[in-house]
Amino acid sequence: MNPQNKYKNLQDKLKQLQQSGFVGREDQVNQFRQNLALSPEDDRRRFLYNVWGQGGVGKSTLLRQFCKIADEAKIISAYIDEAEKTVPEVMGRLAEELERQGHKLSQFTERYKVYRQKRQELETDPEAPQGFSAFVGKTMVKTGVRLARGVPVAGAVFDFVDEDAFATQAGEWASYVAKKITNKDEVRLVQEPVEVLTPLFLQDIFKIAEKTGVVLFFDTYERTGEFLDNWLREILEGRHGDVPLNILITIAGRQELDKNHWAPYEGLIVRFPLEPFTEEEAQQYLIRKGITDNDIIEVILHLSGNLPLLVGMLADAHPNQPQPGN
């Protein structure tokens, strides 16, 4: 092995392989790189990227490339997808990602651990009211029906709920929490986790951003936007405290961010709609994969519709593709 190509770990090797197979999207990649190089005070600097397009078009691949660019620029980044189901869980995962890079969110992590402990105690309590565990973490006790809408419970969706009945049940949940937890701060932490934890999360992020840039990636937003969209907009409008200037948020999903909801922040946003590969990009990708037969290339292009995901799958399935190490 060439000493210049030594890898520190498996992740380094994976990043190199992903980079070698990355084609197209030059405009987006160059724009992202140039934007990171701008001072946060520069009027040309943008602070939110919206990558959107149909499934298989390469959104996650582009986010990985953006992450690599941030890493090369000595800017720390954290990534989440649909694995997290609530706002507190999203903050918790982002905090873990940053801590693995040597940046601990001390204030947030301390309270988040208490929140998770109390939540587990309440959820496993046989005296817990019916439906309680499905809503812990969704800020439902304070805001009631408004934030419960669209949340499926036992096969039903709360768009059709009796609001008065739900308000009564929300009151029962609040009383249950207050009865089980004697510390008033912890009661509020469980009942209003987003309101309690978000300011601590931002304060810790602010301290990190004083030393280095921070990029937060939100992938598969078509699945998480239901509970993240309002929260992110609240953060930008300052409802939970100051947001550091040296931060960049990247959101990727199948749908574009709603232009009405996000209108106040349009000056911060770069929108990147992704289309399938051009024929030239698809051909370039296949050649890099070792497929040079024009007839085979034409078949793959026809079957894939130039969707990057399908082009890659068909290329990998081709029996004459060179194997690693050959």
Describe it for me?
It is a single chain. The protein is α/β, with parallel strands linked by helices and 326 residues long. It has 14 helices and seven strands. The protein has helices spanning 10-20, 26-37, 59-72, 87-100, 106-123, 140-143, 145-148, 163-180, 184-191, 193-209, 221-236, 279-288, 294-304, 308-317, and strands at residues 48-52, 76-80, 152-153, 156-157, 214-218, 247-253, 269-273. Strands 2-5-6-1-7 form a five-stranded parallel sheet, sandwiched between helices. The chain is globular and about 70 Å long. The two termini are 13 Å apart. Residues 139-161 have low confidence and may be disordered.
- What's the helical proportion of residues? 40-55%
Structural class: alpha/beta
Helix and strand pattern: HHEHEHHHHEEHHHEHEEHHH
Radius of gyration: 23 Å
Mean pLDDT: 83
- Tell me the number of helical segments per DSSP (H or I, 4 or more residues long): 14
Number of DSSP-assigned strands: 7
What summary fits the major beta sheet? Answer: 5 strands, parallel
What general outline do the C-alpha atoms trace?
globular
Distance between the termini: 13 Å
Strand content: 5-15%
Largest sheet, order of strands side by side? Answer: 2-5-6-1-7
Q: Uncertain runs with pLDDT below 50, 5 residues or more? A: 139-161
